[in-house]
Amino acid sequence: MSIEGWLVFLVVGEIAGWMTGVIMRGGNNLIGDMIIGTLGALTGAFIFSFFNAGALNLIGSLVIAFIGGVGFVFLLRKISQVTT
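Above: the chain's sequence. Below: its structure in token form.
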């Protein structure tokens, strides 16, 4: 992936993290949401690659990153409930 591709990926992850923070309220600050969004973008891209559903444009990438972010936050919350 080129440098421009990585920058777009990071920006999409940051936006998805902010959106995830708005939807899945609680627990994280803006920086935490951005990190989770970036990890969610990775997770979403990984999961959607199994279904051969790659993003065709910026909106598609944002949707996949958002879904991955929400799923990542959900899993983190479930794990933290089990350990406490």
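Residues 3-83 form one domain.
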